[in-house]
Write a structure and sequence with these properties.
Keywords: Cytoplasm, Transferase. With about 300 residues, this protein is an alpha/beta fold. The protein has twelve helices and nine strands. Bound molecules: phosphoric acid mono(formamide)ester and norvaline (NVA).
């Protein structure tokens, strides 16, 4: 494994291997070895982050490497230096890069022009590190996804939904997206996905009925702040106690965080499921260490 740019590019075998490695790394924390010893990893962030930044900084250090955090305002990228030039400079100095930005193409270009291992830490198109942590959490809490129904309630075509839809395609679990029609995955995407186990509905109750996993995320992703018309369309798509009443018994609720209480999720639901949701946040560290270790090995 040289890069982690998308879930789309991973095979079922690679996903399972990463999750098994993450479980081992989690159990062995402090005794997991130093595969990044002597390496410096750049962390280029053009969007805000709490979990991703902290989990990568800690994870790189725990694997023996040195993280170098570079917000866009610290480097010339923020003043318009092209990503392909940034990539060619950093590729000659550091051993790997973690990038959070807007366009997926920027991460693809960085990987190509730098020649160094590159990890997508969230773009507008995918959030692969988060989905690995989410799948790890589902394995821990429910023992896996075979025969399970996973519901998504909220934005139907965000980085999170797209990565989850690819995960469903690769792993074969039932995945039902409930979203307003205007924010549904476009037909071209669903054709490309070609996954009969992924369905889209306008009815959140239908998606959540008998679901084992109920998943949501912010209605307005980073970069969409102030889109009042978009936000207004999501009123009926809140994860609340009444929606969850028909979920399968023993269901779990996931939220990648940050959460906006009273919008996509109620305070009551978030707090009732905080044990799972903050375990999910912690799993970012273990999942990403598995990714870093797999890259270091190859
Ligand atoms: N879930 C997630 O990626 O959180 P941050 O934006 O805080 O990194
Ligand atoms: N869809 C959200 C995820 C945040 C972790 C966003 O892009 O802002």
């Amino acid at each position: 494994m040289k890069h982690l740019l998308t879930i789309e590019e991973l095979s079922e075998k690679e996903i399972l291997h990463l999750l098994e490695s993450a479980e081992l790394i989690k159990r062995q924390r402090g005794r997991e070895g130093q595969p990044l010893k002597g390496q410096t990893w750049a962390m280029i962030f053009t969007k805000s982050s709490t979990r991703t930044r902290v989990s990568f900084e800690v994870g790189i250090r725990e694997l023996g490497g040195s993280p170098m955090f570079l917000s866009k305002n610290d480097i010339q990228l923020g003043r318009g230096e092209p990503i392909i030039d940034t990539a060619r400079v950093l590729g000659r100095m550091v051993h790997g890069a973690v990038i959070r930005t807007f366009a997926q193409q920027d991460v693809v270009d960085f990987a190509e022009y730098s020649g160094i291992p590159t990890i997508n830490a969230l773009t507008d198109d995918e959030h692969p590190c988060q989905i690995l942590a989410d799948l790890l959490t589902v394995r821990e809490k429910l023992g896996g996804w075979d025969g399970k129904k996973v519901a998504w309630v909220g934005d139907g075509f965000s980085n999170m939904t797209i990565s989850w839809m690819w995960a469903a395609k690769k792993l074969g679990f039932e995945f039902v997206v409930a979203c307003p029609e205007s924010y549904a995955p476009p037909a071209e995407f669903l054709d490309k996905l070609s996954a009969p186990n992924v369905r889209v509905t306008g009815d959140p109750a239908e998606a959540v009925e008998s679901a084992h996993v109920i998943n949501t995320d912010v209605w307005l992703s980073m970069g969409q702040e102030g889109q009042a018309e978009k936000e207004a369309a999501f009123g009926p798509y809140q994860v609340n106690d009444s929606l969850l009443a028909s979920a399968a018994s023993g269901h779990i609720v996931l939220h990648c965080l940050p959460a906006y209480r009273g919008k996509e999720i109620t305070e009551e639901v978030l707090e009732a499921h905080a044990g799972t949701i903050f375990q999910q946040a912690e799993n970012r560290l273990h999942a990403q260490k598995a990714v870093l270790a797999a890259i270091a090995k190859s």
